[in-house]
Amino acid sequence: MAWVHLIVAGLLEVVWAYSMKQSEGFTRVVPTAVTFVFMAASFGLLSIAMRSLPLGTAYMVWTGIGAVGAFAVGVLMLGEAFTPMRALAAALILGGILLMKFSH
To answer: What's residue 51's pLDDT?
Structure first.
């Protein structure tokens, strides 16, 4: 169950990162509120996952899901550049996540 909590926490990290971008420096009320609600939920689930997962594993997977997810959202929803180098960087992060998962 810890892995489910961790994956959901990582996905929520993507949501709050996107809403933070949409908040325009916390000047828009709704995206700002969404940011803080999803941030609290993400941290809460991460802390639950850390009850039984090692710190390094949990934190790396959480930030990795957030980083790769934010990259995908940036490309798909915000029109950010999808270049071979950026794709390779995301693939390397994903590879690191998988290695960390299978090493546990």
So the answer is: 98
3-state SS, the chain, equals CHHHHHHHHHHHHHHHHHHHHHCCCCCCHHHHHHHHHHHHHHHHHHHHHCCCCCHHHHHHHHHHHHHHHHHHHHHHHHCCCCCHHHHHHHHHHHHHHHHHHHHC
The CB density around residue 55, as the number of other CB atoms within 10 Å, is 8
Q: How far is CA 65 from CA 24, 25, 33, 38, 55, in A?
A: 23, 23, 22, 15, 15
Boundaries of domain holding 16: 2-103
* Number of domains within the chain: 1
What would the two tokens of residue 45 be? Answer: 């689930």
Residues of the chain under the 50 pLDDT cut: none
Confidence (pTM): 0.90
